[in-house]
Amino acid sequence: MNNEYTNNQLINEINALRKEKNAVILAHYYQPGEIQDIADFVGDSLQLAQQAAATDADVIVFCGVHFMAESAAILSPDKVVVLPDPQAGCPMADMVEPNRLREEKAKHPGIKVVCYVNSSAEVKAESDICCTSSNAEKVVDSLGNDDILFIPDGNLGRYIAAKTKRAIQFWPGFCPTHHRLAQTDILNKRKEFPKAKVLVHPECREEVWQEADYVGSTAGIIQYAVNSPDQEFIIGTECGILHELSKRCPRKKFHMASEYMICPNMKKVNLEKVRYSLRNLEPIVSVSDEIRKKSISALEKMLAVK
Prior knowledge:
4-stranded parallel β-sheet; Rossmann fold; 3 domains
């Protein structure tokens, strides 16, 4: 009871501060359920980038990980962007460094760098165009016959190469949460739930997405489950998605492909940290003018792809 009372108190304070500061709260589908419930908008990386670019709020409270807040700061330089937990990083983003990327580009003059948004602003500044798992296929198609280096997620790159029938060079990066899902996990769950459709994220390994009935972004997986006549699903992405799935499809059954599909960084934000961020307008995430000018082109090109 005390817990519930405290949460209600926190939510009331957050709502009052949100109004006072003219703030918008954006949350990723992988955030804890209580954070998704207080957000003005919940989405995947592409949807959140679109919201950050379009908002007329003065303050953006980004409930996600650091690269997402950075992208919001790049797209909305006139806004105050705060990340409730500054330690909420992304291991995949750390797998590509600007210097190493510059070295690789020098080896392949003229190559186009397609940069997954799960990357730092400095890396985006060295890239030609960004993409998310929602629009990566369209982004690659938009480049015609250019040679492509896909960074940093090799798993997503291999999936897009298979979809587009393109020869693509891959960076040796990956999402630890999705990468740990194995083919045996899918096969075992299929035996346990033979009527269930398997829906997985393209950040998973090739051996995993080849077993799936549907491969798509977080938003894509949700939409597939909503529209499908099937009633039972095995889910191969971060477990935070279950919160939205249960709200949108309360009569359908969802089984996680593995109990280990949890991103510790996505679970660092809580109600207390959101209240603190709104009250104090910190920790602020900012991008230098030099890096912003270089990186915004790659993000805007991504948002322009239809």
